[in-house]
Amino acid sequence: MLEMMFKAGLTEKQIVAEVKTIIWAGYETTSTATHFLLFLLASNKEHQDACREEVDRIFNDTNSVQQVEN
């Protein structure tokens, strides 16, 4: 792939800039989606509880938050 970029006329500096852009875009998108998901879960107790139950069921968690708090 690197050879294809060089053949297309891109310089090493341009290739590095493209890679940085792709990495940053992926990081920012993931960060924003995670932030929004946590906001929505915090805003909706019913869905938050459903997600917690599913995670507990999948990972067989016997020390869920409810049990620790009680």
Automatic annotation (TrEMBL):
Organism expressing this protein natively:
Orchesella cincta (Springtail)
Q: What is this protein called?
A: Cytochrome P450 4X1
| PANTHER family according to UniProt | CYTOCHROME P450 FAMILY 4, CYTOCHROME P450, FAMILY 4, SUBFAMILY B, POLYPEPTIDE 7
- Molecular functions per Gene Ontology: heme binding; iron ion binding; monooxygenase activity; oxidoreductase activity, acting on paired donors, with incorporation or reduction of molecular oxygen
Which cofactors does this protein require? Answer: heme
Q: Which family does it belong to?
A: Belongs to the cytochrome P450 family.
Q: Which UniProt keywords apply?
A: Heme, Iron, Metal-binding, Monooxygenase, Oxidoreductase
